[in-house]
Automatic annotation (TrEMBL):
Residues 315-370, 377-434 form the CBS domain. PROSITE patterns: CBS. Keywords: CBS domain, Magnesium, Metal-binding, Nucleotide-binding, Nucleotidyltransferase, RNA-binding, Transferase, tRNA processing, tRNA-binding. It comes from Desulfomonile tiedjei. The lineage of its organism: Bacteria, Pseudomonadati, Thermodesulfobacteriota, Desulfomonilia, Desulfomonilales. CDD domains: NT_ClassII-CCAase. GO terms for biological process: tRNA processing. This is CBS domain-containing protein.
């Protein structure tokens, strides 16, 4: 049974999305999980009785649901009794939604989630793709969903896709008269009374320069369309941010509206168990009085509202500046190294001017490399202080046409603000361009809080360490961030306790301060790179680094490191999904910094590099891109794939140290499905780029599948021996190579000489063993042991994967599981007691006894003594 449902208190977008989903899933039952908005109820009764049949939630047998289609929501807390279907995990879940992610989201097998004005716009696109026809009544209902959720195309969340969907619906006969009537419905007496209260009880808060109106009202009976009343009040008074609490019957309703980035209505509503967007959100509160809810709302606003920003908050720092005596040639190196388009020129007397890339490029073209930068800079540059409001900086850049604004504090240059910094601040966080930026992107990061996710998913002792780290940073007037794979995996709901912290300050002293908080901790530091590892007594460790940037003197070289800011530290990372940082300072604990769209790419399951030279500077990123793509089921973006192909044409791996390639290759072979990684590597031509002899064809793929089966068998033997799975797969990858080619690959990958020699010898022994077993149909157990004992477990497992003979596989399996553990009952002391002198004869006798026991010649210690007396009479008593 298929069921289409939506959120409680369904609005027109929810209802319209259900109607649209029914066109895509014609056999599905349609069911509201609970209440609907008054407008929806009235319109449904009057106009849509014949569009579709609505089932009652209580009549649905939840156990019979095989597919649940959720529209306009994915929060378990908002789908009523259908939440149990999602939690059971038996039904297939399909999701169509436009709301931001929340911590109680349902996971779907099919998820189409976009930042768009109305969910129904997403479904309309699917309807158009499939060529499904709509009648005029259906088109009208779907259009109502768009018009309501976009505020008739006036809300900031409105997109061109919403407008295109509405235009298509008009072409299908959507009735604008009906839509207009519903959007401008007259208020009844009760609604007018509530609106009067909202206006009369309104109070204006000023939080960090942000004005927010909070108001309350009460009604003895239910009053519909509260959202409409709040919206009317907001428009009447031209309010930027408005929150209304209305008590009706036994519950309190919260409606939030915001037209400014500093106030996120969705975040506030979520704290009351509701949800929505940054611009519009709501919640139904059942366990609080209106006074308690009002007090909590005020506290949340003071805690969450981001005050108006100043120049010091969005400036790029530490600042990179040129000195007057430096040359144009040196400036060209700086512009390239730091990936910026302008730099300030500063001397002892202050800011002298701004030098732009265009001027540098022209000067270099004309051979003026040795001229001082002061010859070609724009002299004189208005400056601002860290406390200067952003609006004033905007006027400088727009009206004054100043590309770069220096930030000065007490005569000292402390930062700069570029136009991209300002654009990043002014742009609403609805996503960003999907291409790779050519220059270091600047501006305000997209932010959200994962505090609750940290508290739910991290072990208590780890969470305690992170909170201590935040406290220490606050005391030291520094900032500390959780970064890297841990943050990525946190958003993916995967476990990862490889904790990496970045400190905007001094990493090594910070690590020592943290270690002092936990008895028995040690610190291992690396002064050159400003990094340290805090080692806990139980083996847990935390890597701590000073925020830094890296640049490459030549393609494939190891990076040169300099101290920097968290923004530049994140920019040096490989892919957008690994650029997220979570602040641990108490005042911002759990706040995610997302400068590069990493959250979006995780959500859309895309691997994307940060800049166009990423693979030229570090070709091993190609291997990581493929590995992450396979591990997480992500897609390598088209632009990133193009950059990979371009880098390979440049033969970038030729300059990479073999050890670095080997490390990445080992990581790939350690993945759950190395075969899929190698298939992608083969499709790009990565393997022959590493070494001409390497390939991954159908034979190799079959060998990998066989190896995977053997490793699974080994796992379930529950032996204590350590096996490196990557070695088994490496033998499979190189099996088709000649002796010379295999030796050359080992040399290219820079394996130590001793390890290379051992690998070559073992490979020859493996092949001889397989040949021996293939030519002998009957082999005594003692012979099996003699043949296989010199080989490593990895070699033995590979031989099991490679052989096609069942008897050979059984001999190897018997050796691994039992034969190698067989020992004689007698020991050296027993031999002494029989009159033998310690020496080489001991080894000979014990080996003979072991073979005899393996082959069934002896079964007891007395049998062994008798065998010794017969075989070695001279030494026996």
């Amino acid at each position: 049974m298929e069921v289409i449902t939506t959120h409680l208190n369904a609005d027109f977008d929810a209802f319209a999305s259900m109607v649209a989903a029914k066109k895509l899933y014609p056999d599905a039952a349609v069911c509201f999980p609970g209440s609907q908005g008054k407008n929806v109820r009235d319109f449904f009764i009057e106009s849509t009785l014949y569009i579709l049949s609505i089932e009652r939630a209580k009549d649905i047998d939840l156990d019979k649901i095989t597919r649940l289609i959720l529209v306009d929501t994915r929060q378990k807390s908002r789908i009523g009794r259908f939440a149990s279907v999602a939690e059971a995990g038996k039904a297939e879940i399909h999701i169509y939604d436009h709301h931001p992610a929340s911590e109680d989201d349902v996971k779907g097998g099919v998820e189409i989630i976009e930042e768009i004005g109305a969910t129904v716009s997403i479904l309309i696109r699917e309807i158009k793709k499939r060529g499904i026809e709509l009648n005029a009544e259906e088109a009208t209902v779907l259009a109502l969903g768009i018009y309501e959720d976009t505020g008739s195309f006036t809300f900031p969340s409105t997109t061109s896709a919403d407008m295109e969907a509405a235009a298509w619906l008009l072409s299908k006969g959507a009735n604008l008269n009906i839509i207009s009537n519903m959007m401008t419905a007259d208020l009844n007496k009760d609604q007018i009374e509530v609106l009067h209260q909202l206006i009369h009880e309104a109070e204006t808060l000023n939080i960090g320069g942000i004005e927010i109106v909070v108001t309350t009202a009460t009604a003895e009976n239910y009053v519909g369309d509260l959202a409409l009343l709040v919206h009317k009040f907001k428009d009447m008074e031209n309010i930027d941010a408005l929150f209304a609490l209305v008590r009706m019957e036994d519950r309190v309703h919260l409606i939030g509206r915001s037209a400014i980035v500093e106030v996120n209505a969705g975040d506030i509503a979520a704290e009351f168990g509701g949800g929505g967007h940054a611009q519009a959100a709501s919640a139904t509160i059942r366990d609080m009085t209106i006074h308690t809810a009002h007090e909590k709302l005020l506290n949340l606003l003071h805690e969450r509202v981001q005050p108006k920003r100043t120049a010091g908050e969005i400036m790029s720092h530490p600042v990179i500046a040129l000195e007057p005596h430096q040359t144009i040639g040196e400036a060209a190196v700086f512009l390239s190294r730091y990936q910026v388009s302008s730099l300030p020129v500063a001397g002892s007397e202050g800011i002298l001017g701004i030098l732009h890339r265009t001027a540098v490029d022209k000067a270099v073209h004309h051979g003026l490399d040795q001229h001082p930068v002061t010859d070609y800079m724009n002299p004189g540059a208005p400056t601002v202080t860290p406390d200067t409001p952003i609006e004033q900086v905007v006027r400088l850049t727009v009206e004054g046409r100043q590309r770069l604004v220096p930030v000065v504090d007490d005569g000292r240059l402390v930062g700069v603000i570029s136009r991209s910094d300002l654009l990043g601040h002014l742009k609403l966080p609805q996503g960003s361009d999907s291409s790779t930026p050519d220059e270091f992107p600047a501006g305000r990061p997209r932010t959200k809080s994962v505090r609750r996710l940290l508290e739910e998913r991290l072990p208590r002792d780890v969470l305690n360490v992170l909170k201590n780290a935040g406290d220490i940073a606050e005391q030291r007037q520094e900032s500390v961030y959780l970064v890297g794979g841990t943050v990525r995996d946190l958003l993916l709901r995967d476990s990862n306790l490889d904790i990496d912290l970045v400190v905007e300050g001094e990493g090594i002293p910070f690590a020592r301060a943290l270690a002092e908080q936990f008895p028995g901790c040690r610190v291992r530091s690396h002064e050159k790179f400003g990094t340290a590892v805090v080692l806990f007594p139980d083996g847990f460790k935390i890597d701590i680094a000073t925020a830094r940037l890296e640049y490459y003197e030549r393609p494939g070289a190891l990076p040169t490191v300099e101290t920097s800011s968290i923004k530049r530290d994140l920019y040096r990372r490989d892919f957008t999904m690994n650029t997220l940082a979570v602040c641990l300072n108490p005042s911002r604990f759990g706040q995610v910094l997302d400068f590069f769209g990493g959250s979006r790419d995780i959500k859309e399951k895309v691997i994307r590099v940060l800049h166009n030279l990423a693979f030229v500077e570090d070709p091993t990123r190609i291997l990581r891109a493929i590995r992450f793509s396979s591990r997480f089921g992500f897609v390598i973006s088209k632009h990133t794939a193009t950059l990979i192909k371009g880098a390979l044409k440049m033969q970038v791996f030729a300059n990479v140290e073999g050890k670095r390639i080997a490390n990445e290759l080992i990581h790939i072979l350690e993945e759950r499905s190395p075969s899929s990684c190698l298939s992608v590597m083969a499709s790009y031509g990565v393997l022959p780029a590493i070494h001409p002899a390497l390939s991954f064809d159908e034979r190799a793929r079959a060998l990998f599948e066989s190896a995977a089966g053997v490793l699974s068998w080994w796992k379930y033997l529950f032996k204590k021996d350590k096996v490196d799975a990557w070695r088994v797969y490496f033998l499979a990858l190189t099996d088709a190579l000649s002796h010379e080619e295999y030796a050359s690959v080992l040399e290219r990958l820079a394996f130590p000489i001793g390890a290379r020699q051992k690998a070559l010898v073992e490979r020859s022994e493996m092949r001889m063993a397989l040949t021996f077993f293939a030519s002998n149909h009957v082999v005594r157990p003692s012979v099996v042991v003699h043949v296989l004992k010199p080989l490593s477990l990895e070699a033995l497992l590979f031989m099991m994967a490679k052989t096609t003979r069942d008897t050979t596989r059984k001999w190897i399996a018997d050796y691994i599981s039992s034969l190698r553990y067989v020992k004689p009952a007698l020991r050296g002391n027993d031999l002494k007691a029989m009159g033998f002198e310690p020496g080489p004869v001991f080894t000979s006798i014990l080996n003979r006894l072991r073979d005899a026991r393996l082959d069934g010649e002896v079964a007891s210690a007395e049998d062994e003594r008798n065998l010794i007396r017969r075989t070695y009479p001279a030494g026996a008593e």
